[in-house]
Amino acid sequence: MLLSHTEIPVVFPCNNDSLVGVISKPENSSRIGVVIVVAGGPQYRVGAHRQFVTLARLLASHAIASIRFDHRGTGDSTGNLRGFVDMNADIQSAADTLLSRVPEVEKIVLWGECESATASAFYSYLDPRIQGIFMVNPWIRTEAGLAKTMIRHYYWRRLLEKSFWTKVMSGNFSLTASLKSCMKMIKSTWARSGGKADSVFNDTLDTLPLPERLAQSCQRFSGEMFILTSGWDYIAREFNDYVKSSKIWQELTVSGCVTLKDIPEADHTFSRPEWRKQLFDYTINWLKRIESIQKDTSQ
After folding, report:
1. Is 24 in contact with 53 (CB distance < 8 Å)?
2. Alpha carbons 132 and 141: distance in angstroms, whole number
3. 288 Cβ partners below 8 Å, 6+ apart?
4. Domain limits of the chain?
5. Which residues are paired to 70 by β-bridges?
6. DSSP character string of 181-249
7. How do residues 98-121 score in pLDDT, each as one tens digit?
């Protein structure tokens, strides 16, 4: 049986700008609320395939309040687009608004895909109200990381595909162009692959390369983290490859504060209904676990 809920349009301040969002408020809300963070690219509070609308309403049916909003420079919000590396003020304003409009909520979980997953991690450790982060296909794109991913997951796979050899035999394959492209990728990995996978602990995280900034942000966060990746997504594969080489990520995984899951057949946006169902099932089950942890610690 679905619980009734109300959708409340809100306009709220963020420094000198105004952000537009929608709060999905259950009739009786749990103490955990969710801030759905929109990616830094050309997207707004509805989400790809109306995913954020569906997610917010599903959360409400499980007594979980949420807010989905346009950060500065996107959708109906004012201001200049700052990108995912500068969204702390936007996320804080959204969390403030959810807490003020739904007083039953005591703690916040951040939910983000791709760039917004990474932005959520950058903010998480700065706000003691943040209880957890649900990250989907976190963005840590670097030129070297992309090159390694393409060599490992694209070029070798292409050699095993029938369509590749059909193209070769038909004369429609340019060996010279392909070799140049492959060598460019290899040179990119050599040029930037010196040193260890993680830098030393850094007080000014914004000066770090993106993969390391994300790793150290998560290291500083004291709450729970759930990371879901798509098997057919090079952004996810770049992240997973880095996790395997990162001492910080290995320590976080062993500590039990990070849950890593993968949906092998899914694409980046979970475009098929069955993939979205798995994504939402993971979200709901994990949030219920977070809520039970909060209840145990408050007793």
Report:
1. no
2. 23
3. 62
4. 5-140+209-298, 143-192
5. 20
6. HHHHHHHHHHHH--S-SSPPP-S-GGGS-HHHHHHHHHHH--SEEEEEEETT-HHHHHHHHHHHH-HHH
7. 999 999 999 999 999 999 999 999
CATH class belonging to 5-140+209-298:
alpha beta
Residue of 194 and 39 predicted with greater confidence: 39
- CB count within 10 Å of CB 89 equals 17
Q: Rounded to the nearest 10 degrees, how much is the dihedral formed by the CA atoms of 181, 182, 184, 188?
A: 140
**Does 144 have pLDDT greater than 90?**
no
Cα–Cα distance, 15 to 33 (Å, whole number): 23
Is-contact 7 23, C-beta < 8 A? Answer: yes
Q: In this predicted structure, what is the pLDDT of residue 4?
A: 79
Distances (CA, A) of 165 to 150, 152, 182: 19, 19, 17
Rounded CA separation 292/283 (Å)? 14
Q: HSE, CB side, 13 Å, CA atoms: give it for residue 263.
A: 23
Q: How far apart are CA 240 and CA 63, in angstroms?
A: 33
Q: Whole-model pTM?
A: 0.84
| Cα–Cα distance for residue pair 174/180, rounded to 1 Å | 10
Instruction: Please give the helix or strand (H or E) that residue 13 lies within, else none.
Output: strand 5-14
What local confidence, expressed as pLDDT, does residue 41 receive?
Answer: 66
pLDDT band at 165 (very low <50, low <70, confident <90, very high): very low
